[in-house]
Fold each of these.
Amino acid sequence: MVKIKLPGGIERKYKDKVTVRNVANDISTKNRGSAIAGKLNSTLVDLDYAIETDTKLDLVMDNSEEGLEILRHSTAHVMAQAVTRLYPDVKLGIGPSIKDGFYYDFDLGRTLTQEDLEKIEEEMKRIIGADEPFKRSEEPREDAIKRMEKLNQRYKVELIKGLQDQTVSFYTQGDFIDLCKGPHVSSTKKIGAFKLLSVAGAYWRGKETNPMLQRIYGTVFTSKKELDKHLKLLEEIKKRDHRKIGVALDLYSFQDNAGAGLVFWHPKGGVIRNIIETFWREEHYKRGYDLIYSPHIAKIDLWKKSGHLDFYKESMFSPIDVEGQEYILRPMNCPFAILMYKTKIRSYRDLPLRWGELGTVYRYERSGVLHGLLRVRGFTQDDSHIFCRPDQLKDEIVGVIDLAQYMLESFGFKEYEIELAVRGMGEEEKYTGDSEKWVLAEEALRSALEEKELDFVRMEGEAKFYGPAIDIKIKDALGRGWQGPTIQVDFNLPERFDVNYIDSDGLQHKVVMVHRTVLGAMERFLGCLIEHYAGDFPLWLAPTQVRILPITDKHNDYGIRIKNKLSEMGIRSDCDLRNAKIGYKIREGTLEKIPYLLIIGDKEIEEETVSVRSRKKGNEGSVPLSQFIERVEKTVKDKA
RNA sequence: GCUGCUGUGGCUCAGGGGUAGAGCACGUCCUUGGUAAGGACGAGGUCAUGGGUUCAAAUCCCAUCAGCAGCUCCA
């Protein structure tokens, strides 16, 4: 007798062992889709898996996240089969399912082209049409190694040798066998609508010193409709790309003649950045910060002392010779704040000192990692260094979290992920300072997060070289997370630079430093912001808030008068005086994503009004200018 | 940095061993038009840069620079 507990308190009894498929057939799953695999006490198994003992069983449906994962994985196998048929000498790497799709790595001794992908797709369709069942088999490790050696699959041999288990499993479909834990769909026919998307190089096992394999990316869904929906989404995401919008809206550029990763902010991008920076400064003064400025370059000895030369060298530009002295372009601002702190003796009464700085730094990033505004070589951190006593540390961290949340909220970012970045095990050489201090620092960060009741993930090996950090990730159009705000606790640089204060006991004590940003870097933040709003900036950030569109040139004077009035009120506006029809001017203003277009003609001049066309609602009819100005002022104030 | 792809007027892109094309944008003129493209004419490019092959290179080859997709890195 086998007792099987199903979700919803259902229990079924079978006389003998029974396959997952049988159980699935016995219960109605019609309204949930079709079963693709089973889950026994959280272990995924094939439909053909025979259940022999009492257990809990969940059915995995083809339209569930887990079901899709299995489907993607199976499609990767089919792709490998197709590639093996077309290129018999291929050496197979790995082929997992990933978010939204799958990939498989191949060593072909040559590179693949778009045409190759089409051929592979066709072969895959043939395999799917042949309705080949996926069959699971198991064999002893040693036999498996021999089998793969015989097939001349060196990467697979390496994989098996890395496994601990004495038995390894394979999956076979048709003429193709692959090392795999499973589970898989029952047959190739179950694979719905797929598409191969791209091919790129990828190092074997992600190691730079290993050979580079050809990685083919693809995606698959249960139906063509869903696939098309996904492909459309990819298109939409592309349109949102800040690199496209940045050019279209004339916000910024990169210049070949100047160098990669160096941003030129055009006037319109400059306006946005300026508004953000003004807002940032005001908010900091409100919260008890002082703002400072420091140089962009300093003697190499400073960077030796700070530890940057030992721990951060790879990200720094080479030294510059100045009259026989070596200088370094700063990759961080912290040593400068420390030098400034040390210009006098500080009392415990002076602390905390919160010093903010929009500090431009330069980091050497390898050419291949540069990415629009999100990864650049010169950028401005909205930095701050807080010098405090140990007893003030937690409150300071909480204060920074508050500020970071307020900032992100103000810019409409409702979703972000929080990580607690700590040292990695066994990589002590990457970090400076003694362990106790690291424990203290992590403790302070963690307790602040707990006090704020924020969810976070602990990330090992992600700390800065001088201390652990809270890292807040904001997302780009492709869903990739980019580090924005960061809060780092540092007991180490105060040690290195001997940064003290006199406590009430009259003795010197080491200060604790908090390094933090609440936006991250202006460049990256703007990049994320562009994608977040898809270029439709809210009124308070829009480079041009209002455009006046005279219907004919005899209305131009009135248009200019309105423009001047708006300018007096601090509203950013322009007036389209071109000899063009109104529909044309409206189209251009719309494409430029200007929040308000004011159309003026005979009627408006006579009534002293403006006809409002808003980006959100379209034609809203005529209102007196004063009423429109009030509306704009209120919307700006509300950051709506 | 690595693998692959790409680089043609401000933008999007076609072409391709014999001395450059389209649409949009821009300028002038006609038109004075009421809520997403009126018309005509015109100007604008050493085809990324530097070498090489060739009678001849924007086109083929090499290098460099830059961009794109990944990998690695960074955080």
Amino acid sequence: MLTKATEFDTELKELADQAKALSHPARLTILRFLAAQDTCICGEIVEALPLAQATVSRHLKVLLEAGLIDVTQRGTSSCYCVAPDAVGKLHLRLRGFFNEVEEGGRTAAC
Amino acid sequence: MLTKATEFDTELKELADQAKALSHPARLTILRFLAAQDTCICGEIVEALPLAQATVSRHLKVLLEAGLIDVTQRGTSSCYCVAPDAVGKLHLRLRGFFNEVEEGGRTAAC
DNA sequence: GTACTTAATCGAATTTATACGATACAACGA
DNA sequence: TCGTTGTATCGTATAAATTCGATTAAGTAC
């Protein structure tokens, strides 16, 4: 019937937003780094990345806003870590999306 | 030892690029739509999205460049479909990344 | 208190993404 | 051949993302 949609599906909008949080190598590097470290002090993250401190801080903020990491203060230091629940949830969501796409893909007509 | 990296890991750069292809609801909608349809004519995609034809065409180009869809010409029509291999590979890659992050997350110190 | 360290934020520059109307272009039908 | 249809691309406007130096603010050490 080809009716024009007036907006996007909410679920897909949310998934797109979280995918955006993963769409920069700095942020992927941060997530992997935090997962590999016992400690997770901001300064160490800055040292591990080829970016200025201000820029790293901004990437950390993006990850925080996406809920994928948490932060706690230790004196003047900020201690970041992976938020396992949110990461697990995103993983699940992505798996669901991919399963949907891969299922259909097998029967595509072109 | 806190050595400053001079650039990002190539694997993570590529993953970030593909995540970027997934970071817009229009593109997720297109992928899901193509997976659900037998036919996959451009015009039908345009009708399914709340966007102008030119904009949809651009999103399709992004997905093509990411390798996630293929296109074949049928007369004046363009017939798009999911590229199952590339999608499967991305799915695998993402699973690998998430497993890495979730593994470490369980032992995080903060 | 003063000096130092750590990290967030501001300000500003640059780049990239998103969007759409208009146009071009190729295939098709009359 | 001529108009129509389906898509890609161009031009352009706007918004968002990325980056970094400079500054601020808050804790620590003396």
